[in-house]
Amino acid sequence: MPMPMITGQKPIRKSKQGRFQIVDTIEIMRPLTKYARQVVSGSAVAATVREAFRVAEEERPGAVHIELPEDVAADDASGEPFTAARVRRPDADEKAVATAVGMIEEAKSPLILIGAGANRKLTSAILRDPRVKAATLTGSEKAGASVASICGQEIKTTVLELGGSDPYVVFEDADVEAAARVAVEARLQNAGQSCIAAKRFVVVRAVHDRFVALLKEGFAKVVMGHPLDEKTTMGPLASESGLRDIARQVEDSVAMGAKLVCGGRRADGPGWFYEPTILTGVRKGMPACDEETFGPAAAVIEAANEEEAIAIANDTEFGLGASLWTKDVAKAKRLAARLNAGFVAINNMVTTDPRLPFGGIGKSGYGRELSHYGIKEFVNVKTVRNA
To answer: Each residue of 242-293: pLDDT tens digit?
Structure first.
């Protein structure tokens, strides 16, 4: 199949696998729209009056996803999948602001979802509009800081789901084969361009070499190619700048002493493809350890024991997700409480579920999306006391 310069897309085989998740999500979200009042309270509203900016009390939950010009002021911010209408590529002027905010009003929603590549001037104008009551953003630290700053000046509620450097911790008593097999998908999903993808693989010394060998075998089976090719298991990166960033992080880490096990270069041919890469000997101070690696590169960090593994996992400014691998589930639950993260997966990779709250701490953001906790982020809990 001829392959032009293509950008990051999920392979068609992965999209087909996800079609059932879409159906499940629709069914799960149905009661949230039909019975928002009960969802917000967690049960019956009873004597407490709850106002959700007209969302929970009077209107269905709704939102507008606005796709704006790609001046990249909001960096890699991506809109949430709760879409009622779209505005495509308006100019950054008063008319565009009026159009965008008008669609928010039409959707009977106080919530604005900023889409990819937002124009800086227009984004600021929309966020400052008095009709906009709150904002949620999924994107980079830079984008989150910008939105939070604007909304802070306007005293408006925000929820930020930002980057991550998720640890994937493999203990001595883990099923190493299963951990390595799942690690391939955990790291390479969306070509590594996922905030919840595993980034740092913290492996206890006793099983380190075995895990790395199995991970290398798994990476070797990855088929890079056109996203519409059924044989493709990993597509390209979304942009040339993303390709440059992951290449820099790998090259600089190797220059600082990390060992390149496989990959480490741009793939031949058209498209922004980067080979699945494994680095070992990664330590604090290296880009592969300290920064969010938004591409198909796994940073493996060896830990002497359980205590050091947890310490390494927590030694980051981020706090989105984490995975723990051990056959002792009781131990995993005990250690999960010690991890600085908003989501901990035990013997599995981090995934989102609309029934469960999701979000991070630290530079991974604040607030929660999904479930009734997500709705409550934008709910005014009003106390009415009758004399």
So the answer is: 999 999 999 999 999 999 999 999 998 888 999 999 999 999 999 999 999 9
Residue 89 falls in which region: left (phi positive, over 0), alpha (psi -120 to 50) or beta = left
CB neighbour class for 65 (10 Å; exposed up to 12, middle 13-18, buried from 19):
buried
State the distance between the two ends of the chain, measured CA to CA, in whole angstroms: 75
In angstroms, the CA 310 to CA 38 distance is 39
Tell me the per-residue pLDDT of 108-131, one tens digit each, with 9 for 90 and over: 655 555 554 556 777 888 889 888
Catalytic pick from 161, 291, 292, 377? 161
Is the CB of residue 294 less than 8 Å from the CB of residue 242? yes
In DSSP notation, 320-334 reads SEEEEE-S-HHHHHH
The three-point CA angle 250-253-256 to 5° equals 150
Q: Choosing from 151, 195, 291, 377, which is the catalytic residue?
A: 195
Of 136, 192, 205, nearest to 166 by C-alpha is 192
Tens digits of residue pLDDT in 348-384? 999 988 889 999 999 999 999 988 888 888 888 888 8
CA distances for 264 relative to 156, 163, 195, 198, 268, angstroms: 44, 22, 21, 18, 12
Question: Is 161 designated active site?
Answer: yes
